[in-house]
Amino acid sequence: MALTEIGIDLGTANILVYTKEKGIILNEPSVVALHIDTKEVYAVGTEAKEMVGKTPANIIATRPMKEGVIADYDITSAMLSHIMKKIQKEAGFTLRKPKVVVCTPCDSTSVERRAIRDAVLGCGAKSVSLIEEPIAAALGAELPVDEPKANVIVDIGGGTTEVGIISYGGIVSSRAIRRGGDHMDESITQHVRKEYNMLIGERTAENIKMEIGSAIPDGEVRTMEIRGRDLVNGLPKTITLESPEIHRAITETLDQILETIRVTLEQCPPELSGDIVDQGIVLTGGGALLNDLQEWLSRQIVVPVHLASAPLEAVAIGTGKSLAMINSLQKASM
């Protein structure tokens, strides 16, 4: 079978590829392991993520995407080439100059958008269309974006959080901040370093966030035993963390996300405000899976808060769905 149309969610944390024939055919971390001197790629995706923090000095495992945009063009191109080959090999598809739709942050610059377009074209695409992430997320969450009503989407990714109010197929009001799940991980790492004189890796911090991280301070107290390196004597060390202290560590990022939602809602035309009271907002992205986030947000903004049925995959699904309506969406966003 020849693939002629694909949608790509080129995220900071994960890269997902969607086709209308088979849905999501690839979902892997946006990580590349390569040789420092020769730039030879050793692994991409899940295999490369397993290598983070465990490689010898001449090999690094890195993320070429930072805050939703390309930070290292060459490594991103190499990652995309490997991804395209993997699709053909594992899914049994033939890529014949496919039409590709890629999502981009709504605040990305023309230079950042051009970098994404060039990187995908360099991998053999016939054409590349870009769609703003809030619209892709809303489509993937099955919101009626082309109707004359307010659809509020909050996409909390690894490097960015984007809030959009969508009506008639276009963005009425939107804001994006370059803060997301990765910044929560960094805050947890800094907390452990400061309070316990212990160094932990990226993956440990992410596991802590998923296991005992919470958006509310007064929820159930959960504990987790973690291991790291003692900064005083350099030896391995084990400590036990509790959910309230992790909440305190990530509060700053949560407050910034809340402020972004509030500012976007304040910019909403009054005719659409009534819809938001009735319909509420929909959460997508990996960050939306943080424990108690829905409850915390509904307390703060006093409107219903819903979680998309597939929050991690919503943007990729929406990117794929937009293939059939890309012309009308681009006209609405002009």
From TrEMBL:
The keyword Cytoplasm applies. Keywords: ATP-binding, Cell shape, Cytoplasm, Nucleotide-binding. Pfam families: MreB_Mbl. One of its GO terms (cellular component) is cytoplasm. One of its GO terms (molecular function) is ATP binding. It comes from the Bacteria. It is found in: Cytoplasm. Forms membrane-associated dynamic filaments that are essential for cell shape determination. Acts by regulating cell wall synthesis and cell elongation, and thus cell shape. A feedback loop between cell geometry and MreB localization may maintain elongated cell shape by targeting cell wall growth to regions of negative cell wall curvature. Forms polymers. PANTHER family: CELL SHAPE-DETERMINING PROTEIN MREB (PTHR42749). This is Cell shape-determining protein MreB. It comes from Marinococcus halophilus.
